[in-house]
Amino acid sequence: MKKTNELTIRVYYEDTDCGNVVYYANYLRYMERGRTELLRDLGVELSAYHDRGLAFAVAEANVKYKRSARYNDVLTVTTSVKEVTPATMTFNTEVSRGETLLACGEIKTACVNLASGRPARLPTEIVEALKTAVVNTSNTFPPAPASSL
Question: Among 17, 41, 51, 73, which one carries the catalytic annotation?
Answer without folding.
Answer: 17
